[in-house]
Write a structure and sequence with these properties.
Layout lengths: L2 H15 L4 E5 L5 E4 L2 E4 L7 H11 L3 H6 L5 E8 L3 E10 L2 E9 L14 H6 L4 E7 L5 H15 L3 E6 L12 E6 L7 H8 L6 E4 L5 H12 L3 E6 L4 H10 L6 H11 E11 L5 E9 L2 H8 L7 H7 L1 H4 L4 H10 L5 H7 L3 H9 L62 E3 L2 E3 L5
Parallel strand pairs: 7-11, 7-12, 8-9, 8-10, 10-11
Antiparallel strand pairs: 1-2, 1-6, 2-3, 4-5, 5-6, 12-13, 14-15
Helix pairs in contact: 6-7, 9-10, 14-15
Length: 432
């Protein structure tokens, strides 16, 4: 193992050991890892332009990407280091030269129990057909939630699950179901192309990494219409905005028919936000919307779309739905967050405070604060952190700021490691 290999593997190892979500590399700049909400410089010398070029080529496994590397402006992909984990990357150019950001992905697929997600998600994952969307900002845990739901289906039902991802993040093993995972660029040209083919591959469940355009949405709706359960993500903050975003993808003349299709085929929207709490931990607050006759009417009638939050709030006891503000109220009563934090993240702070004062939000007993299903505590002082080191940037304990004790130091040497990096990828020494 040469010095460059040791340097790179030390950096990957430091990120995993510190439960960091991202690794930042840039030509001529000190490498950094994301710890909490900020970047922490790592005690390694900067990578030169030549070293960055070599490392980027090492990370590329797709022959087409390798061939296009010299002319490429942006590249996405993933690679695995045995015994350490998987890493998703985006390579790009800046005025400094070649750069890359790597996302740390756990080798173990998270379960709904690992992520402390509510039981309602098991019911949603068990639907016979329909479109299920997980929404939220980048780093809010969408991929981990989807992976956990797919894992639940994989363990409980004998189905064919087909995933189309860019790139593949969590690798699922074959359990009760048969899983076919395809990656954009390596296995198929686009989400739309893969979805067209998917309908001829006898799937029961289809996961589409992201609803990026009207063609992908149109085919996903067609799959739901023909009896498939389809999962995907959208970068929207709540259910009402998600409906608006999807409808807006269609031309004005087609939006009424799009509303009809969406009302008939949308099964659920799960929206996530990360809420900071004491000790550097984070709690997930979720809005969960499950389609029913009232929601359908709100989707069909543009003037009633704004009433969706009201239907979600009323459907908590009967349908397992909940608004963000209802969940925030539960978190305050469980003493997992304080009132100031809840008000800062509430959808409507004044309404939240009024409803909370009159007991509109359901309470939980303090003795069950750490086991409350709706609490979604991703890390607590009483239990070790989950096996997934990041849960799509949703599970970590950030180390202190640079210069203070607490950041796990880089290993002094990696001579005992069983992992090596080669020009054809990363593998164990002695492998062919």
């Amino acid at each position: 193992m040469n010095d460059l290999e040791k340097k790179f593997l030390s950096l990957l190892q430091a990120a995993v050991q510190n439960n960091s979500s991202d690794i930042h590399l840039a030509t001529g700049q000190t490498p950094s890892i994301r710890a909490g909400d900020g970047l922490v410089a790592v005690s390694l010398p900067p990578f030169s332009a030549e070293e960055m070029d070599v490392l980027c080529k090492f990370m590329l496994s797709d022959p087409k990407q390798k061939a296009a590397f010299a002319e490429s402006q942006d590249l996405d992909g993933s690679f695995e280091v045995k015994g350490l984990g998987r890493f998703r990357f985006n390579m790009y150019r800046s005025v400094a030269g070649r750069c890359a950001v790597l996302r740390v992905i756990a080798s173990k697929v998270p379960t709904l129990a690992d992520l402390k997600l509510p039981e309602q998600l098991k019911k949603i994952a068990g639907a016979a057909r329909g479109l299920v969307l997980v929404t939220g900002a980048t780093g809010s845990g969408k991929s981990s939630t989807l992976a956990a739901m797919i894992h639940h289906i994989n363990e409980s039902e004998a189905l064919h699950i087909l995933t189309v991802e860019d790139p593949i993040e969590f690798l699922h093993s074959q359990k009760k179901s048969r899983i076919s995972q395809r990656e954009i660029g390596r296995d198929t040209a686009s989400f739309a192309n893969a979805l067209k083919s998917a309908l001829r591959q006898d799937p029961d469940v289809i996961l589409v990494g992201e609803m990026r355009d009207i063609e992908t949405l149109d085919i996903a709706l067609k799959a739901a219409e023909t009896g498939h359960l389809v999962f995907s993500t959208v970068h929207t903050s709540d259910a009402m905005k998600t409906i608006g975003r999807l409808i807006s993808l269609y031309p004005a003349a087609e939006q009424n028919s799009a509303r009809v299709r969406l009302a008939d085929n949308l099964h659920a929207v799960i929206s996530q936000r990360l809420i900071p709490v004491a000790g550097g931990r984070k709690v997930v607050a979720q809005e969960i919307m499950v389609n029913n006759l009232g929601i359908q009417e709100c989707i069909l009638n543009e003037k009633k779309t704004c009433e969706i939050p009201s239907f979600i709030e009323k459907g908590k006891e009967v349908s397992g739905m909940q608004t963000f503000d209802q969940h925030l109220g539960d978190l305050v009563k469980a003493r997992l967050i304080d009132m100031d934090t809840a008000l800062a993240y509430a959808t409507n702070p004044s309404d939240f405070q009024r409803n909370f004062s009159f007991g509109a939000s359901s309470g939980v007993d303090d003795s069950t604060a750490h086991s409350q299903e709706d609490g979604l505590v991703l890390e607590s002082a009483e239990s070790p952190p989950p096996a997934d080191p990041i849960a799509e940037a949703a599970t970590f304990r950030p180390p202190p700021t640079p210069g203070k004790p607490g950041l796990t130091p880089l290993p002094p040497a990696l001579g005992k490691t069983n992992t090596a990096i080669t020009k054809s990828g990363i593998k164990k020494p002695g492998a062919a």
